[in-house]
Amino acid sequence: MLKDITLGQYYPVKSPLHKLDPRVKILLVFAFIILLFFVQNFVGYAVFALFTGIVIKLSRVPMKFMLKGLKPLFFIMIFTAVLNLFMVQGEHVMFRIWKLTATYEGLRTAVFMILRLVFLIMGTSLLTLTTTPLALTDGIESLLRPFRKIGLPAHELAMMMSIAIRFIPTLLEETNKIMQAQAARGSDFETGSLIKRAKALIPILIPLFVSAFRRADELAVAMECRCYNGGENRTRMRELKMHANDAVASVIVAALIGTIIFTNLFPLFSQFAL
Amino acid sequence: MIEIKNLSFHYDSEEEILKEDVLRDVSLTIPDGEFVAVLGHNGCGKSTLAKHLNAILTPSDGSVIIDGMDTKEENLLLKIRQTVGMVFQNPDNQIVATIVEDDVAFAPENLGVPPKEIRERVDWALKSVGMYEFRDKAPHTLSGGQKQRVAIAGVLAMLPKYIVLDEPTAMLDPFGRQEVMRTIQTLNREYHMTVILITHYMDEAAKAQRVIVMDHGNVVKDAGPREVFSDVEGIRALGLDVPQATELMYELKKAGIPVRSDILDTDECIEALLKAI
């Protein structure tokens, strides 16, 4: 149960994608996601598939690993597809079951929806798989810095994120320890009704929370002892620097944006859109 | 030099029981370069004393002066905390970052040190605790002793003059304890750092130049380890033990065998036994 948490999962290989500046990567993924919602026909999706395929190849993350990330969302994808298939109104009726009508327009929307979700997940997982949690938080902090003027605590948010990531393994270990201690005293987490199992979790959660608060307190003192006093006048050992390859990546994504706009405008291509 | 003058401390609380003095009229002077061990059973005030040394707590009465800086002055806070580094019991709760070298960089980053110098300090600090090869590992993959050494490196990167360790080995296995003790001794001998080690392991205290024993918020003994531990009865009366070697010699002497009673470690013990034979 606890092993499946993939938050901040990072795939440690060396690739051109791993080397990109996290700020650039975050912005490009944002552009990628927004662009996804402007794709209107199959040619556009083909371009997207080609692009994503090449980027995955470049990232040197195995395809199997990418597909594993899709698995948890399989149900949602099927659900949206079925919903779209029957709910979208259209003229070209495919078949009827009971009171539900499936149309070709519905099928088209359903397929588009699935494709959209697949690319959405692949794009975001590529970001987390090729960026260390630390670089990611540094990137977010740096990108949010301009919003400090309107009172957004950029440094504090990034610090909270990185501490949360730092403590995931520690708290997992602790949870396992508590579970074993409770199991040793005859606690049963696996059988019984849902309510019964949920109740069995209470004796795990309470000690876990108590210990988390104690840890937080000790960590705060330890941070103060190491002269932590917020983000003011703070320097960083690793400075984020942009390189030529960041510019190249930006140009490539700009080209993708151009291609998608082109496929949307050109009437020839729109004919492929059922 | 650390000067503690008539330091008394109690927590500000509504409840009467908590208002009792945790420290009572403590006066101590710790010269530069010394290795001091502070002993005492639980609740004797030794951790509270430690927290006064870098202004985590400030005196209710009296004063603590670090290199001429009074800990009560708030604008000296950062300078004091940078001068007196502090290491705690649980290494897990002092490591901030997800990668060893980034954690060591945390303090100099807070102090606004330029990036190039941070890099130098981090490398130096990790090398001096023998953790340089682990610089790009995640802390949770390290053993307890290794994590505690990383925590020490994290403090060293501030370039402190004094380092206070509050039971740094209490949560470690025997091997981890040895690693950490060796590191602490290196800091004192080779880097001439003033070390204040709070512990309840007698054999660790025996390695110090000076042992301070506390009881109920008072300093009851303050002398070299030989002198402190040779008073076996007195130490036991305070609810503490003496190092095993010292205890053996004490018992032998009591049984009428002529041996020295101011023995601290196994080597000395063997030597004394050979002489007695």
Structural write-up:
- The complex is a heterodimer of chains A (274) and B (277).
- Chain A is mainly alpha-helical.
- Chain A has 2 domains: 1-131 and 241-274, no CATH class; 153-231, no CATH class.
- Chain A is 68% helix and 3% strand.
- Chain A contains 11 helices and 2 strands.
- A two-stranded antiparallel sheet of chain A has the order 1-2.
- In chain A, a hairpin with a 2-residue loop joins strand 1 and strand 2 (100-103).
- In chain A, helix 2 packs antiparallel against helix 6 (104-130) and helix 2 packs across helix 7.
- The two termini of chain A are 44 Å apart.
- Chain B is α/β, with parallel strands linked by helices.
- Chain B has one domain (2-224): Rossmann fold (3-Layer(aba) Sandwich).
- Helix content of chain B is 39%, strand content 20%.
- Chain B has 11 helices and 10 strands.
- In chain B, the strands form 2 sheets. A 6-stranded mixed sheet of chain B has the order 6-7-8-3-9-10, with helices on both faces.
- In chain B, helix 6 (174-190) links the parallel strand 7 and strand 8 (194-198).
- The chains are: A mainly alpha (274), B alpha/beta (277).
- Chain A binds chain B through residues 132-134, 162-163, 165-166, 169-170, 173, 215, 218-219, 221-229, 233-239, and chain B through 54, 56, 78, 81-82, 85-86, 88, 90, 92-99, 101-102, 105-115, 118-119, 122, 138-140, 154-155, 158.
